[in-house]
Amino acid sequence: MSGNKKIIKAVLSYMIFCLILLSGSAAFAAKGTLSLVSMGTGDPDNMTIRAKMTIDAADLFFTMRGNNSYPELIKDKPVYAAEHWLFGKGGGKPRRSNEDSEKLRNKNRKIIRDAVAAGKNVVILDNGDPSIFGPHIGYMDEFSDLNPVIVPGISSFNAANAALKANVVKGNARAVMLTLGSVENGRDEYLAKQVSDGVTLVLFMVRDMDKFISAMSAKLPGDTPAAIVSNAGSQGDEKVITANLNTLKAKISGVKLGSFLLYMGESVRP
User: Fold this and answer.
1) Which one of 29, 142, 154, 157 has the fewest CB atoms closer than 10 angstroms to its CB?
2) Rounded to whole angstroms, how far apart are CA atoms 255 and 237?
3) How far is 38 from 158, CA to CA, in rounded Å?
4) pLDDT confidence of residue 21
5) pLDDT score, position 134
6) Cβ(192)–Cβ(209) under 8 Å?
7) Cα–Cα distances in Å, from 32 out to 116, 150, 243?
8) CA 124, CA 144: separation in Å to the nearest integer?
9) Pairwise CA distance, residues 100 & 49, whole Å
10) What is the model's pTM?
């Protein structure tokens, strides 16, 4: 009987040893993470709790230009340049030459892959919602094999709706279109038709406002409601301007708009 006990004890000891060994091997093989994290839009208090927790757990960061824009959060951890549309998924273009962009792509590939393989947590910081015209969304495709995650946040669209105090799908406006403010290649006809059909048009950063207003005015009634929200989410700088196609140009004349959204449609009628 005592012999059986010794055998059982030996077997149990061996099993415990194997479990410890396996546990150690799993920890050694554990990979790090890659996260695209929204800082929210405007003021820092628009950041989510989940974003803050992910940032706290990070070992290194990527920001737009590689500078420490959030010293109270990043502290003294390494920071690298994510660049604008570096991996080109979504229609944007890098702001560097092709040669410089390729050098930075290769550099970032190595930094990220080496860090994740070493068990480190990599965080790419973005503003607003990274999946709505976000300049770093291409990282998700480039490093899809690393199972990256997006930590969503408040976009300028969310913050601007709150500033307008408007329900953008009220009444006949049962749909919202988020798009860029361009009227090239006959796009003005398409956009004007959406507004005529009751869609609330939300345009991110109209680059040529005069051209856009002229194009829309040629196809829509002058009393078509319009509104601009500038610096959405920034309590000290946020501006809301309500108008229509006839009055919009005069109302924004001489106004520094900063980052803004332009709304058109019945849902934003004052």
Assistant:
1) 29
2) 12
3) 13
4) 46
5) 87
6) no
7) 4, 15, 50
8) 14
9) 36
10) 0.81
